[in-house]
Amino acid sequence: MSLSPQSVSITVDTPEGFHDLPLHLPADVLDAALWELAERIWPGGTEFQRETTAIVYSDLTTALTADDVLHAAVALYETEDGAASTAHLLVRAQAVEPQAPEVVAASFQETLSFDEHRNVARVDLPCGPAVLSLHATETEGEAVLPTLEFAQVELYVPAPVQGWLIVLALTTPCFADLPRYTGILRQIGESLVVRPAGQEDEPPKTPAAGDVRAVFG
């Protein structure tokens, strides 16, 4: 997947179990892409399940495209006890002061560390320095609905294109699977390639064996 909104283009690889949403597609091919997505999510499901999934993700895809999201994916896994484990991945580009990546990373690490509800760590990716953040969020529903809690893991990656920060956010309601999703987000970050928009694609760097280090235990 490679998209070029604004001034940067990004490429990421998502692991098996993730289903990429078809963002930034022309309207004449979007419906077919959404139906293919529904078939991948429900390979043994019913026509109703696939149709409902396509409708839900049609609205979501439209909203994310309008919000200039670079990349989005949904993760669906089965736990050891047969339950479903889900997560959503969003990748955005955020404008920052045009400084060296080391300076931007250090600034975000310091700023995020002031939040007592976050765990923050500096990490080194093939594309440069980054900051890994883990925290919980709450979404308040209507009076008849309970408050929903989510865990969110974020990677803040200063782009080689100065003036831009790439933010990868993985959100899940499955707190027990948080270690797995933290490792997955780090894995996705290892695959991230950022370049100026319009530049020819280059193969992503392959991290050396043993270079992926565990974070947050």
Report on this model:
- By secondary structure, this protein is of the alpha+beta class.
- The chain is 29% helix and 33% strand.
- The protein contains 4 helices and 10 strands, in the order βββααββαββββαβ.
- The protein has helices at 27-41, 47-66, 101-113, 178-191; strands at 2-3, 8-11, 18-20, 71-78, 84-95, 119-125, 128-139, 148-158, 164-172, 193-196.
- It has a 7-stranded antiparallel sheet, sandwiched between helices.
- Helix 1 (27-41) crosses helix 2 (47-66).
- The relative contact order is 0.18.
- The model is unreliable at 201-217 (pLDDT under 50).
What labels would you give this structure?
4 helices, 217 residues, 33% strand, disordered C terminus, globular, alpha+beta, single chain, seven-stranded antiparallel beta sheet, three-stranded antiparallel beta sheet
Topology of helices and strands:
Elements: E1 2-3, E2 8-11, E3 18-20, H1 27-41, H2 47-66, E4 71-78, E5 84-95, H3 101-113, E6 119-125, E7 128-139, E8 148-158, E9 164-172, H4 178-191, E10 193-196
Antiparallel strand pairs: 1-2, 2-10, 3-4, 4-5, 5-9, 6-7, 7-8, 8-9
Helix pairs in contact: 1-2
> How far do the termini sit from each other?
31 Å
What's the quaternary structure here? single chain
Q: How large is the share of residues in beta strands? A: 25-35%
How does the major sheet shape up? 7 strands, antiparallel
* Sequence of secondary-structure elements: EEEHHEEHEEEEHE
Say how many strands there are.
Answer: 10
Shape: globular
Unreliably modeled segments: 201-217
- Give me the side-by-side strand order of the main sheet: 3-4-5-9-8-7-6
Number of helices: 4
Helix content percent band: 25-40%
Alpha-beta classification: alpha+beta
Overall pLDDT score: 81
Q: How big is the Rg?
A: 18 Å
